[in-house]
Write a structure and sequence with these properties.
- The structure is a single chain.
- By secondary structure, the protein is an alpha+beta fold.
- It has one domain: Sandwich (Jelly Rolls).
- Helices cover 36% and strands 27% of the residues.
- It contains four helices and eight strands, in the order H-H-E-E-E-E-E-E-E-E-H-H.
- The strands form two sheets. The protein has a four-stranded antiparallel β-sheet.
- Helix 3 crosses helix 4.
- It starts with a helix and ends with a helix.
């Protein structure tokens, strides 16, 4: 039987993370499952988790006032979902729902923040891993919005 730690260490986000840090992170983790169509989070909800997607697909959407929701990114196996747990006021900035059955590992943001405050090196390690993921997410969103609204000259 696989343990959460054995699953996390194989995920690209945690690659080469020192074992003591992996053990600390695993203490904040649990398996979760979302059915197709189920919301994982909604805009302005409290953001106290982030997710390691193990299987499935998740649509990230924004809802412009008076318009239909716009999918700005799709997250799938091997990717992470969420960074708002790290930045006050800890609120989601978009909606996310499972497109298909999705299995993930949820990491408790409050638990991680506490451990990062206690061990600044752990916080630095997680931040080094989150920043490139945030950058990739922003670039994917930019490209999607260019596709939706057309490039300007």
């Amino acid at each position: 039987m696989k343990t959460l730690e054995s699953v996390l260490i194989k995920h690209p986000f945690f690659e080469n993370l020192d074992k003591p840090y992996l053990e600390l992170v695993t203490g904040c983790a649990k398996n979760v499952k979302f059915e197709a169509g189920q919301f994982i989070c909604q805009h302005d909800d409290e953001a106290n988790q982030f997710y390691i997607i193990r299987h499935g697909k998740v649509a990230l959407e924004i809802c412009p006032p008076g318009k239909a929701p716009v999918t700005v990114q799709t997250v799938s196996e091997g990717e992470i979902l969420g960074w708002a747990w790290l930045v006050p006021p800890y609120r989601w900035h978009l909606d996310a729902h499972a497109i298909e059955l999705t299995r993930a590992i949820a990491l408790d943001g409050q638990c991680l923040r506490k451990k990062c405050e206690e061990d600044k090196n752990l916080g630095y390690e997680l931040l080094k891993r989150l920043l490139p993921a945030i950058g990739r997410s922003m670039e994917a969103t930019r490209l999607q919005l260019l596709d939706i609204y057309g490039a300007r000259d």
